[in-house]
Amino acid sequence: MDRGRDDWSENDEKFAPTAEDIKAARGLAGEGLELKNDETSGRGESRTPENLTRNEQMIWQALSAANAPLKAYDLLDMLKDSGVRAPMTVYRALNGLERKGFVHKLESQSAFIACIHDGPHSVFALMVCDACGVVQEVDLEGFSVDLRPATAARGFEMRQAHVEVRGLCDGCDPSTTPSIAAMQTNR
């Protein structure tokens, strides 16, 4: 798949969308929002967003149906048959969704995931499994009680903080993951 970019690596391929992700996203594209608060997406519980543009709806549905983080060009490839043809269209929709609190950017992968919480939150962690690529979100609002005064004492107004935590999820066995096992024996 030609992405028109030079930053593609073998590690990215490990977390690339599956055929099921692409099929699910194409099946959702163009339809009205079907997910309700009590239905689950590819990542777990999800809320139904309101007041989204058509492009934001399509992007949110694709991210909600995906079982892995998706990059902007993955989303463009998935939704091109639905009329999304320009990278800027995807980036604008992602920016709008991020501003509204419906998606989070996984900085280490330049990829996005749908937020699974009930409303916008400013302090959270994204736990990334090095073996299978699953991403889990944890709300850390209680942590902001300590963080906000510390940043304010330095004359900084905190708007958002997030941490990416890398490791192994409970479904992955470190003894069967060569790179993880090698890291542990080299310590």
The first-to-last residue Cα distance is 38 Å
The level of helicity is 25-40%
List segments where confidence is low: pLDDT < 50 over at least 5 consecutive residues.
Answer: 1-19, 21-45
Neighbour order of strands in the largest sheet: 3-5-4
Strand content: 15-25%
Number of strands: 8
Radius of gyration: 18 Å
Oligomer: single chain
Report the structural category: alpha+beta
Q: What does the average pLDDT come to? A: 75
List SSEs in N-to-C order.
Answer: HHEEHEHHEEEEHEH
State the major sheet: 3 strands, antiparallel
Q: What does this 3D model show about the protein?
A:
The protein is α+β, with helices and mostly antiparallel strands. The strands form three sheets. It has a three-stranded antiparallel beta sheet. A three-stranded mixed beta sheet has the order 7-6-8, with no helix packed on it. Strands 1-2 form a two-stranded antiparallel ribbon. Strand 1 and strand 2 form a beta hairpin. Helix 3 crosses helix 5. It is globular. The protein starts with 9 loop residues before the first helix and ends with a helix. The N terminus is likely disordered.
